[in-house]
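Example record for the data management plan.
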Amino acid sequence: MNLSDSQTGGAVPRRVSAMEAVFGHLRSAIERGEYAVGDKLPSEAELCRTLEVSRPVLREALRA
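Corresponding structural encoding:
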């Protein structure tokens, strides 16, 4: 049987990379006002611990 013929087959949820998840989290936090304009973000080490990601992932998200 072809899976595309299945009744349960539908749109497959898109996987989100760790970088995209961190980027989305930080962007949402800024939009919600958790970080005001001009505020400094927590240190890389603190963000890595809080978000449970590596420094390269965090740095890539911050660059984005």
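Summary line stored alongside the record: DSSP finds three helices and no strands in the chain.
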